[in-house]
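User: Fold this; tokens only.

Assistant: Input:
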Amino acid sequence: MHRPTKFEHNRWVGDKRTQVVYDVDNIDDPSIIEELMEAETFICFGPDTVDEARNRCYKPYKGNGSGLVDAEA
């Protein structure tokens, strides 16, 4: 997927509604990012790392949208 224009220099983009962070470079379903951009509930992190997102209590996207590993659900 191409990075959204607003985040062309960011790999990690978070959703403020769910506190899930997405790896834009490795996401399987680009419609997730498209919906996030339309809703305008996104956030980026500085530095642009998953560790910084975790420091802000965001959970990495696991494929089911929850940010939880299936065993945690």
